[in-house]
């Protein structure tokens, strides 16, 4: 028969064999997982590279359009500045003389109204005596 030490050694060897078998199963599954992950990453990179190229082209086109918009905005700023100047000149040329002429006409009308007797004044004058 077996001695106690031999039985203990046999039990430890069996547990060791079970542990190694369990670790082999885990390592095989891990190997399959890594293989599938590698395939997925390769497939993903095959799909992502054209997308990145499209994004790069889109960004380049957007930058080109922004340069054009910036030029348009600069031109609009220049045009608005010119419009302010033109408005000031027009105001100086037309508005001030027009205001002066309007004031002159108003003054002349008021003076003429004071000089010429109005129908109301004539009626008032007749009623008084």
Fold and architecture overview:
- With 129 residues, this protein is mainly α.
- It has one domain (4-127).
- It has helices spanning 4-115, 119-127.
- The protein is rod-shaped, with a radius of gyration of 51 Å.
Give the SSE layout.
Elements: H1 4-115, H2 119-127
Concise synopsis of the structure shown:
With 129 residues, this protein is mainly α.
Q: Helix content range of the residues, please? A: over 70%
The Rg value, from CA coordinates, equals: 51 Å
State the major sheet: none
Give the total of domains: 1
Key attributes of the depicted protein:
0% strand, 2 helices, 129 residues, mainly alpha, single chain, 94% helix
């Amino acid at each position: 028969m077996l001695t106690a030490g031999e039985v203990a050694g046999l039990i430890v060897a069996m547990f060791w064999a079970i542990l190694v078998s369990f670790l082999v199963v885990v390592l095989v599954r891990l190997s399959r997982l890594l293989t599938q992950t590698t395939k997925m990453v390769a497939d993903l990179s095959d799909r992502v590279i054209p997308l990145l190229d499209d994004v790069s082209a889109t960004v380049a086109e957007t930058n080109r359009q922004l340069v054009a918009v910036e030029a348009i905005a600069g031109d609009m700023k220049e045009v608005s500045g010119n419009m302010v100047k033109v408005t000031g000149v027009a105001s100086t040329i037309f508005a001030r003389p027009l205001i002066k002429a309007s004031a002159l006409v108003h003054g002349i009308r008021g003076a003429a109204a004071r000089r010429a007797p109005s129908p109301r004044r004539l009626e008032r004058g007749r009623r008084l005596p």
